């Protein structure tokens, strides 16, 4: 950004009302925050993060004054290029996540920053959900769902945003605010914007009077259609307010900013069943689909043979997939009901519908949860399956079309032929068959000569086939964006296209709201500003930048998300690959990115691996960051080795430090201690760790000095207290639990009748995670081997299970130690081995539970909550609190990460007596930011149980 740039002038003007940390113009963050899930790349000149409607209105006013275009961004999971810009990007943050459930769940009012899955979580107690159900619902935000009219697998056209919107709160290009739920706001808007409303009503009347155009609109919206503006609003409504409300749906930020939306919710039927039906060819599959259109089904998902082949080798997939003949296809048929009778009747109706249609195997429904989940795993794994095997440097393109269902079989065959003729033989086909909505997914590179031209030829022919010959939709549910803007007129014809431009002019006469999206005069727009995906690291090269990982990342509101870390890693790799050909500008950019990435990419990464649980291709961005740390750690490898070789002494020093801190706290008090330690940290340049009032006492390891009972009749378990529990004892301020985790664990094991085996030289043992997280891989390996040897001895080569009292350490051991060792962490062991042996009486308390990221990765979330519910009257699982961000010692050394990750925790647990988790260091941060004591989940079980 140059001194005289319009972005700097805008930043200066906005800085009077918006804090500098929310006005972003540095090279690293503009690139990172400007990236979305599409295959386009534009870098914004300024990223603005307004936290209120007033701040957003001020931003729009300043942009209007300078004629600077504006693009709105929610989660950035859209695929068609509608959320990228080289001008001003307005990004939603914490200030846009409010919500209100209305009328006992029959409606819900949501701000645009609420994640779709969170909305459904709020409605679940009422047996309801929002209508739209895009595949990205766990990561996409309501603002994007509404602005793109995103639909999904079950909602069809009947339950999308257009059909289920009740009211909308919108800010227009001129800064005016309309809330259709507020009669006064509507009256004021009619008075101030009568010309706009009259214009919309005029267009509606003209459209209804144009019989051929009106019929074309009605026909096209019998299909899924997100190409262009929602022209159906002009034939469905006559009042300007209603037309405006529905035009905002699917407008992709080109007509205004949706600051809140009220949805009429839909019933979420609790009972589910699914059948995976295989057919000999695509024609038969499409005929079955047409027949099922009238059946009582919730979803029918089509998958061609290439799609099934792409996942058939993955773990857990049915063996029948490998035996299917070429040309075969499948339908995943989902049926739901409110009660057993209804579900059974619907399954029988489907069976009757498919009678007489040839299948390769009998069609049978399953209600078994694991099999049901497996069927949907097959379907949802198709898009990433292509992404995982594509050539490095290529992207994955997903085309999103809809055919009239009565011509589905013809359309599929014609479309397949086009792809093959243009050399796209790796394309797979799947889709929401009931709506005629098909996705073609294929890898595409743009770097090699002729590739852009090949893609253009493909798109030209697809557009002609789908939009003209078959009267279908070129974008059924992914939005027009930049990708399909050049083809809108081809699909809709000149009359409808002119109508769309009139709508745009009424709302945005200066064309400042997301220009070039939906409507463009540029015929090659879809071939410009293509995103490079250079090789960066084998760990992340298969990343498709979808953004699914972002919702669970603890640093998402502080610095970067996993996707954004990968974006910068790729840019660093691109610049480094230039070598001697780098000019002065690239050299300066590379130096800046390296310097800024140290904090934003590395120091604030918890490296917890939670991102891998959401990533469609299983990428753990923490592995990338640890690899970078390893490259820088060579100079301190000797120090790590000395600590590892004298680990017992290192833990003694740590306990001594805790004792000293406790003495200072007693002498100075918590307030003065906090000020003194904070001052010392600042003077050290943040090199000294941050003291926390939740810093616990030192643990006493004398509790481990015990002699075996020698009772051969008792079941044996090896107990390995982690180095964290050998260092950190009970919280100073926790009046109800004064014992260390080791004391609690041993008491429970004794109560349950176990014979406890403690490994030799226990004070010296470590799983190696503390070293691995710092990039000290060699010492981590050494400590792991050392521990492996001792645990094999203690467990008699795996004859006895090993209990570790800290979940992250257990995961580390499961991944790196001998497979003969049965490694169990507190939740799994307590749920499976302690509960059956104890008499449990739930305590009459409301308690909070924090499911650690390692527990989530081990698939223990349900057991965790189930264990807590067995032990307490009421259990609270705070919403949208994923990884706590403490990450071993980052809570001390990068405390802002812990604070950001746990923002909002205290409000959610305020009425709880205590919180429970299974990692001692996590519990320190949770205690500080939750305002209640957090303890080991074993403490709760011990309090609620007695020996049988």
Nutshell version of this structure?
The protein has 948 residues and is an alpha/beta fold. Helix content is 43%, strand content 13%. The mean pLDDT is 95.
Walkthrough of the structure:
The chain is α/β, with parallel strands linked by helices. It is built from 40 helices and 27 strands. The mean pLDDT is 95.
Distance between the termini: 71 Å
Helix content: 40-55%
**Helix segment tally:** 40
Largest pleated sheet? 6 strands, antiparallel
Mean pLDDT: 95
Radius of gyration: 30 Å
Percent strand: 5-15%
Strands of the biggest beta sheet: in what spatial order? Answer: 12-14-13-16-17-15
Can you tell me the residue ranges where pLDDT is under 50 for at least 5 consecutive residues? none
Q: Per the principal axes of the C-alpha atoms, what is the gross shape?
A: globular
Helix-and-strand structural type: alpha/beta
- How many individual β-strands? 27
Keyword list:
single chain, 948 residues, alpha/beta, 6-stranded antiparallel β-sheet, 40 helices, 13% strand, globular
Write the layout of secondary structure elements.
Layout: H1 6-14, E1 23-24, H2 27-33, E2 46-48, H3 53-66, E3 70-73, E4 88-91, E5 99-102, E6 107-110, H4 116-123, E7 128-129, H5 142-148, H6 161-164, E8 165-171, E9 177-179, H7 183-192, H8 194-209, H9 211-220, H10 232-236, H11 240-248, E10 257-264, E11 266-267, E12 271-279, H12 282-292, E13 299-304, H13 305-311, E14 329-337, H14 340-354, H15 369-380, H16 382-389, E15 395-402, H17 408-421, E16 428-432, E17 437-444, H18 451-469, H19 488-492, H20 494-507, H21 562-577, H22 584-603, H23 611-614, H24 621-632, H25 637-645, H26 647-668, H27 670-683, E18 716-720, H28 723-727, H29 741-751, E19 755-757, H30 769-772, H31 777-794, E20 802-804, H32 807-816, E21 823-824, H33 826-834, E22 839-840, E23 843-849, H34 853-857, H35 861-871, E24 872-876, H36 890-893, H37 895-901, H38 905-909, E25 914-917, H39 920-930, E26 934-936, H40 937-944, E27 945-946
Parallel strand pairs: 2-4, 3-4, 18-19, 18-20, 20-21, 23-24, 23-25, 25-26
Antiparallel strand pairs: 1-2, 5-6, 6-10, 7-11, 8-9, 8-10, 12-14, 13-14, 13-16, 15-17, 16-17, 22-27
Helix pairs in contact: 1-3, 2-21, 8-11, 8-20, 12-17, 17-18, 21-22, 25-31, 26-27, 29-40, 33-35
């Amino acid at each position: 950004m140059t001194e005289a740039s319009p972005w700097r002038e805008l930043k200066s003007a906005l800085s009077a009302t918006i804090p500098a940390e929310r006005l972003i113009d540095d090279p690293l963050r503009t690139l990172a925050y400007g990236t979305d899930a599409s295959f386009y790349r534009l870098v914004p000149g300024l990223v603005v993060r307004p936290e209120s409607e007033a701040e957003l209105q001020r931003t729009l006013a300043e942009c209007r004054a300078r004629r600077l275009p504006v693009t709105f961004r929610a989660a950035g999971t859209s695929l068609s290029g509608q959320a990228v810009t080289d001008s001003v990007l307005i990004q939603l943050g914490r200030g846009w996540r409010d919500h209100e459930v209305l009328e006992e769940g029959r409606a819900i009012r949501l701000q645009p920053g609420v994640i779709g899955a969170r909305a459904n979580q709020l409605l679940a107690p009422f047996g309801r959900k929002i209508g739209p159900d895009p595949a990205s619902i766990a990561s996409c935000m309501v603002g994007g769902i509404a602005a793109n009219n995103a639909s999904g697998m079950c909602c069809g056209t009947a339950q999308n945003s257009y059909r289920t919107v009740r009211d909308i709160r919108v800010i227009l290009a001129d800064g005016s605010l309309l809330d259709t739920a507020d009669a006064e706001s509507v009256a004021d808007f009619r008075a101030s914007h009568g010309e706009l409303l009259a214009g919309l009503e005029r267009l509606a009347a003209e459209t209804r009077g144009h019989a051929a155009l009106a019929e074309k609109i009605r026909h096209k919206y019998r299909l899924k259609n997100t190409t262009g503006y929602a022209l159906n609003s002009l034939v469905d409504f006559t009042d300007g307010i209603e037309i405006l409300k529905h035009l905002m749906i699917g407008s992709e930020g080109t007509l205004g900013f949706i600051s809140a939306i009220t949805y009429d919710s839909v019933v979420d039927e609790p009972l589910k069943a699914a059948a995976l039906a295989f057919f000999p060819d695509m024609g038969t599959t499409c005929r079955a689909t047409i027949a099922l259109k009238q059946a009582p089904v919730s979803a029918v998902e089509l998958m061609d043979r290439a799609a099934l082949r792409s996942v058939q080798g993955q773990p857990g997939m049915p063996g029948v997939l490998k035996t299917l003949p070429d040309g075969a296809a499948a339908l995943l048929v989902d049926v739901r009901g409110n009660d057993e009778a209804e579900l059974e009747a619907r399954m029988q109706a489907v069976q009757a519908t498919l009678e007489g249609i040839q299948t390769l195997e009998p069609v049978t429904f399953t209600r078994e949860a694991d099999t049901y989940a497996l069927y949907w795993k097959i379907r949802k794994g198709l898009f990433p399956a292509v992404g995982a095997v594509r050539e490095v440097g290529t992207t994955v393109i997903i085309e999103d079309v809809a055919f009239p269902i009565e011509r589905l079989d013809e359309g599929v065959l014609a479309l397949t032929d086009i792809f093959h003729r243009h050399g796209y033989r790796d394309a797979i086909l799947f889709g929401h068959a009931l709506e005629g909505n098909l996705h073609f997914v294929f890898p595409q590179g743009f770097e090699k000569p002729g590739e852009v031209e090949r893609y253009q030829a493909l798109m030209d022919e697809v557009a002609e086939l789908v939009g003209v010959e078959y009267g279908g939709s070129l974008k059924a549910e992914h939005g027009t964006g930049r990708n399909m803007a050049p083809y809108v007129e081809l699909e809709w014809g000149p009359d409808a296209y002119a109508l769309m431009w009139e709508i745009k002019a009424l709302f945005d006469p200066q064309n400042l709201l997301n220009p070039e999206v939906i409507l463009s005069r540029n015929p090659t727009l879809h071939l410009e500003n293509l995103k490079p995906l250079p090789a960066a690291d084998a760990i992340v090269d298969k990343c498709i930048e979808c953004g699914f990982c972002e919702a669970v990342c603890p640093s998402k509101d502080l610095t970067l998300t996993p996707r954004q870390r990968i974006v910068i890693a790729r840019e660093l790799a691109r610049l480094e690959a230039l070598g001697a050909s780098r000019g002065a500008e690239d050299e300066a950019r590379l130096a800046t990115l390296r310097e800024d990435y140290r904090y934003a990419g590395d120091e604030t990464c918890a490296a917890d691996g939670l991102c891998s649980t959401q990533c469609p291709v299983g990428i753990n961005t923490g592995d990338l960051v640890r690899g970078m740390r390893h490259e820088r750690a060579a100079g301190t490898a000797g120090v790590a080795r000395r600590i590892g070789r004298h680990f017992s002494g290192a833990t003694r020093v740590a306990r001594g430090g805790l004792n000293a801190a406790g003495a200072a706290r007693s002498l100075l008090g918590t307030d003065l201690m906090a000020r003194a330690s904070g001052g010392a940290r600042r003077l050290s340049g943040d090199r000294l760790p941050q003291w926390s009032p939740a810093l616990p006492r030192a643990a006493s390891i004398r509790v481990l000095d015990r002699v075996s009972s020698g009772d051969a009749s008792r079941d044996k378990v090896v107990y390995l207290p982690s180095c964290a529990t050998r260092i950190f004892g009970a919280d100073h301020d926790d009046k109800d639990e004064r014992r260390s985790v080791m004391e609690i664990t041993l008491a429970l094991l004794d109560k349950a009748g176990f014979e406890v085996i403690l490994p030799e030289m226990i004070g010296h043992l470590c799983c190696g995670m503390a070293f691995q997280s710092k990039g000290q891989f060699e010492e981590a390996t050494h400590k792991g081997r050392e521990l492996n040897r001792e645990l094999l001895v203690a467990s008699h080569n795996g004859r006895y299970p090993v209990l570790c009292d800290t979940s992250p350490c257990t995961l580390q051991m499961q991944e790196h130690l001998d497979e003969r060792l049965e490694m169990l962490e507190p939740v799994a062991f307590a749920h499976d081995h302690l509960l059956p042996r104890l008499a449990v009486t739930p305590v009459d308390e409301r308690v909070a539970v924090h499911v650690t990221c390692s527990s989530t990765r081990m698939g223990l979330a349900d057991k965790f909550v189930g264990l807590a519910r067995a032990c307490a009257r009421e259990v609270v699982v705070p919403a949208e609190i994923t990884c706590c961000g403490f990450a071993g010692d980052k809570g001390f050394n990068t405390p802002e990460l812990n604070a950001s990750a746990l923002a909002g925790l205290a409000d959610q647990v305020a009425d709880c007596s205590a919180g429970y988790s299974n990692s001692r260091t996590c519990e320190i941060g949770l205690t500080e930011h939750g305002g209640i004591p957090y303890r080991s989940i074993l403490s709760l079980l011990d309090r609620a149980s007695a020996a049988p």
